[in-house]
Design a protein that fits this description.
The structure holds two protein chains of two kinds.
Chain A (H helix, E strand, L loop, with lengths): L3 E4 L2 E4 L5 E7 L5 E7 L5 E9 L2 E4 L6 E3 L9 E3 L8 E8 L9 E2 L3 E5 L1
Parallel strand pairs in A: 2-11
Antiparallel strand pairs in A: 1-3, 3-8, 4-5, 4-9, 5-6, 7-8, 9-10, 9-11
Chain B lengths: L2 E5 L2 E5 L4 E8 L6 E6 L5 E7 L5 E3 L5 E5 L4 E6 L8 E8 L9 E3 L3 E6 L1
Parallel strand pairs in B: 2-11
Antiparallel strand pairs in B: 1-3, 3-8, 4-5, 4-9, 6-7, 7-8, 9-10, 9-11
The chains are: A mainly beta, B mainly beta.
Chain lengths: 114, 116
């Protein structure tokens, strides 16, 4: 089945440690996205990539980094510079080009930093 | 810039009652509009979308939404609520100003509670 996988489902880290969240898709989508979700705040865009080897900052990129070396993969690193990293992180993908295409979401990773 | 406002962060209905979740948007270009549903600790699932054509859009699980340009609204409805409809619902607009129609701006979400 085609879809988006995120691993792990739950992640625990100590403050000051970097942590990388995995996102893989087999939908052959060009675009991939990372969102952060906090209670009562909806989804906020962290980074997005429209094509391999290229990515752009979203609305809340500070303290995060990404890479897009393969079409299928878009890992997110939460660095120690992120002041409040505890949140639910969602990865999504979509096609690109003319028209409008919905985003497909993974199951999410809940990160807890103590 | 485009924006989406969902009126009511929490909505409670009785089982069998009408569900109405409100969404208003602002956009300088004709919008593409989406409704997503999220169950606890899961990702978002597309309920329905409006791109062009018929303004009344039907989606999965008996939901539908109507695009009203004059009111800049895209409210989500379901005639009869079921317990399984309890979830969080997000309205989104396609941000065509940000490079491509695949960029979405999300509303803050509405949590739907269904009482037996």
């Amino acid at each position: 089945d085609g879809g988006i996988t995120q691993s792990p489902k739950y992640l625990f880290r100590k403050e000051g440690q970097n942590v990388t969240l995995s996102c893989e898709q087999n939908l052959n989508h060009d675009a991939m996205y990372w969102y952060r979700q906090d209670p009562g705040q909806g989804l906020r865009l962290i980074y997005y990539s429209q094509i391999v080897n290229d990515f752009q900052k979203g609305d809340i990129a500070e303290g995060y980094s990404v890479s897009r070396e393969k079409k299928e993969s878009f890992p997110l690193t939460v660095t120690s510079a992120q002041k409040n990293p505890t949140a639910f992180y969602l990865c999504a993908s979509s096609t690109t080009g003319a028209g409008s295409y919905e985003q497909y979401f993974g199951p999410g990773t809940r990160l807890t930093v103590t | 810039a485009q924006s989406v406002t969902q009126l009511g962060s929490h909505v409670s209905v009785s089982e069998g009652a009408l569900v109405l979740l409100r969404c208003n948007y602002s956009s300088s270009v004709p919008p593409y509009l989406f409704w997503y549903v999220q169950y606890p600790n899961q990702g978002l699932q597309l309920l329905l979308k409006y791109t062009t054509g018929a303004t009344l859009v039907k989606g999965i699980n008996g939901f539908e939404a109507e695009f009203k340009k004059s009111e800049t609204s895209f409210h989500l409805t379901k005639p009869s609520a079921h317990m399984s409809d309890a979830a969080e619902y997000f309205c989104a607009v396609s941000d065509q100003l940000r490079n491509a129609g695949n960029m979405l701006t999300f509303g803050g979400g509405t949590r739907l509670m269904v009482k037996p």
